[in-house]
Amino acid sequence: MAYAAIAASTLGDNTVVAATAGKKIQVERFWVSSSGTVNAKWRSGSTDVSGLMYLVANGGMVCPGSGSEFWVETAAGQALVLNLSAAVPVGGFVVYELG
User: Fold this and answer.
1) 8-state DSSP, 9
2) Mapping DSSP to helix (H, G, I), strand (E, B) and coil, where does residue 25 land?
């Protein structure tokens, strides 16, 4: 199990966990918070792996771990990316495994 901070603020793609050759990034749980209204989604490289998360100013969301399933998973060798619809600061963390 590994942890990564989320510190995204750029319109478009923001890498949260860099790609590892031959490995999938499997997100067990995450927490995000936004300083402004923004839509966010998880991506495997440039491919969407979640729907939109509609975040409002000073709001956020928590996706707790279940111990047996992953919220999102990248393709092998792809980075875990948080895509933002606007240049709004979004912070938090992810807990993940390499599979």
Assistant:
1) -
2) strand
User: What is the pLDDT at residue 68?
Assistant: 77
Vertex 91 angle, CA 39 and 56, to 5°: 40
Three-class SS state of 89: coil
Residue pair 83/39 in contact (Cβ under 8 Å)? The answer is no
Cα 45 to the center of its chain, rounded Å: 11
Beta-bridged to residue 27, according to DSSP, are: 72, 96
* Cα distance between residue 43 and residue 49, in whole Å: 5
Q: Is 13 helix (H, G, I), strand (E, B) or coil?
A: strand
**Domains of the chain from N-terminus onward:** 2-98 (2.60.120)
Average pLDDT over residues 13-37: 98
**pTM > 0.90:** yes
> How wide is the angle at C-alpha 67 spanned by C-alphas 64 and 33, nearest 5°?
20
